[in-house]
Design brief:
Helices cover 71% and strands 0% of the residues. With 209 residues, the protein is mainly α. It is globular and about 50 Å long.
Length: 209
């Protein structure tokens, strides 16, 4: 394997950030429904708000696109130069890019879908357990945010338990912790009993803010 220097990690991070910055939720809903998803519901460009606003079909497309943009960049780097640290740098860049998009004035989503895609690709055992945890929370409480938070907390613990390389444990800790922090407002609403439950909707039924 070629020697990897500091600039490789910087470039890997930057490539990941650019890929992660692609605002798939905004672009897909605008292309299919002619609306700016940021003007509806929670104003977020992520899957949950898309589902509440325009329904399941578009939400599934956004979910898959958000998952794939992280997977594509780490897969390319893994093929080019198989280094755990380089892959982790790119993955961190993708998560941050999704949350602070270059195309949206460094605003964006909460990182759950992009983080999920990375976990599925890099940490399959962890992803299965996290999916079960998230699905159980969502189906029993109808709170998508709670499912994302609990899966994010479990991710680094499971990654360590399954014996993945230390850089991947660090990625799970970083990604999971960051996603939890991005859900700070949701956590407050959950504690107050005011968090919105998942419900499929249509844009014409929602009041623009």
């Amino acid at each position: 394997m070629e020697n990897i220097g500091f600039m490789h990690y910087v470039l890997g991070f930057l490539v990941g950030f650019v890929f992660g910055s692609i605002p798939t939720g905004l672009w897909i809903t605008k292309a299919l429904h002619g609306i700016d998803i940021r003007e509806y519901g929670s104003n977020n460009i992520g899957t949950t708000n898309v589902y509440r606003t325009v329904g399941a079909k578009t939400a599934i497309m956004v979910l898959l696109a958000d998952m794939l943009k992280g997977v594509v960049v780490v897969a390319l780097l893994k093929w080019y130069m198989d280094s755990d640290l380089l892959i982790v740098a790119a993955a961190m860049g993708a998560i941050l890019g999704h949350n602070y998009s270059l195309f949206l004035g460094f605003k964006g989503g909460k990182g759950a879908a992009t983080g999920m895609g990375l976990i599925v690709y890099l940490l399959p055992k962890t992803s299965i357990c996290c999916f079960i945890i998230a699905a159980f929370c969502i189906f029993t409480t109808r709170y998508v945010s709670l499912g994302s938070i609990m899966a994010s907390i479990a991710a680094p613990i499971l990654t360590w338990y399954f014996g993945y390389p230390l850089p991947y444990v660090g990625l799970a800790f970083f990604g999971g912790g960051f996603i939890v922090l991005r859900h700070k407002a949701n956590i407050q609403r959950l504690l107050n009993g005011t968090e919105n439950k998942i419900k499929e909707g249509h844009a014409e039924d929602l009041k623009k803010k």
